[in-house]
Amino acid sequence: MSETAPSTQLVRRINARAMLQAMRGAGVLTGTELMAATGLSRATVISICDELVRLGWLRELENQRGAGDYVKGRPARRFVFDDRSAHVLGIDIGAHKITAIVADMAGAARSQVTLPFRADNVPADERADVLDRIAAQALQDAEVDAGTVLAVSVGVAAPVGRDGDVLTAQEFWRSFDVRRIVAERHSWQVLLENDANLAALAERWRGAAQGIDHLVVMLAGDRLGSGVLESGRLLHGQHGGFGELGFLDHLDGVGDTHGIAHYVALWGREALDGGTKTSLRARCGGDGRRLTAEAVFAAAAEGDAVARGILDRVAHRMARVIGSLSTVVNPELVVIAGAVAESAGALIDAIERDLPEFTHTPPRVVASSLGEGIVSLGAVRHALDYVEENALDVYPASLGAAGPKLS
């Protein structure tokens, strides 16, 4: 039976993506080297290269004898991926700030900008204006024209369905249609994804989870959220709720989805209210309302017994959380990420000590080194994945002087 046109086109899309993945960041490659990297035949490699050159993804260099890819003295055809030909934007909409990263097609960040963001009681148009300002600033800092942006990925603290819509009854998201607003203002392709899912993509791409196929990444600051990869594939569930942790409300010893920073500060304040002798009092000027999680971590590092006890208590709670999730998901690695990650290293030994109490399959646990920009970095990876999957339809040559501009 002969191939149908749709199946032929699908194969070409898959092959084009494989070629771009092989060439990104690899420098100059010959046809023979691309055959080895992709497993494709010579005829397919040359055909796809010619198409990617036409679309603006690749540049063909002048023939050069002795390059190693020739027949009977014919010089090799040599290609290079033009990673500056187009760009993507990765944006993290947090509770109190927005972070945006502009990256080229090799995934290299050209700029990163963070602006404060008031989520509550602010009209949708004003929120959209903040998005405009941060996108404009990031593009200006990167010296990148808005017309070269092929995709924008936005991370949100809510479940996101397979169709890219936020699935929540929160008034904030009902009134703030991020995809529609950004797409209408700039004519960009806008993708939406859960923030913890994007953190998982970032961790596997650039963090401690490189090469790990069975992975959980937990954003664990004020709230707990998780992104789950199984066999290297991000899991969403029927309505985008895979990895949501609402069941913790009913888990003994946990009781809610508040995160590490929340309980470290809360239990520190409770210790002060109880009159306990501790250096924490001096760290907040005697006003428990000013005590931060960072101060408790710092006191523990300097040997304060009360602060150490708080961290041990938090670690035990996190062991319950990770143990319950691991019993269901069975990951090889759990990464604690987000704003608390820099301090969370102090909890790892105690978490791993207590984990066997709550699961028969305890994973390794590490703290992320990607910092607070992990979600926007994952958004970059998400946008790059989209562009690669649609390389024959979304490409640099389609842009230029007539492309979309910032208003």
Describe the structure.
InterPro entries: ATPase_NBD (IPR043129), ROK (IPR000600), Tscrpt_reg_IclR_N (IPR005471), WH-like_DNA-bd_sf (IPR036388), WH_DNA-bd_sf (IPR036390). It holds the Pfam family ROK. With 407 residues, this protein is α/β, with parallel strands linked by helices. The chain has three domains: 75 residues, Orthogonal Bundle (Arc Repressor Mutant, subunit A), CATH 1.10.10; 140 residues, ATPase, nucleotide binding domain (Nucleotidyltransferase, domain 5, 2-Layer Sandwich), CATH 3.30.420; 160 residues, ATPase, nucleotide binding domain (Nucleotidyltransferase, domain 5, 2-Layer Sandwich), CATH 3.30.420. The chain contains 14 helices and 13 strands. Strands 6-5-4-7-8 form a five-stranded mixed sheet. Helix 8 crosses helix 10, helix 10 crosses helix 11 and helix 11 crosses helix 13. The longest helix is centred in the C-terminal third of the chain and has 25 residues. The protein is globular and about 85 Å long. The C terminus is likely disordered.
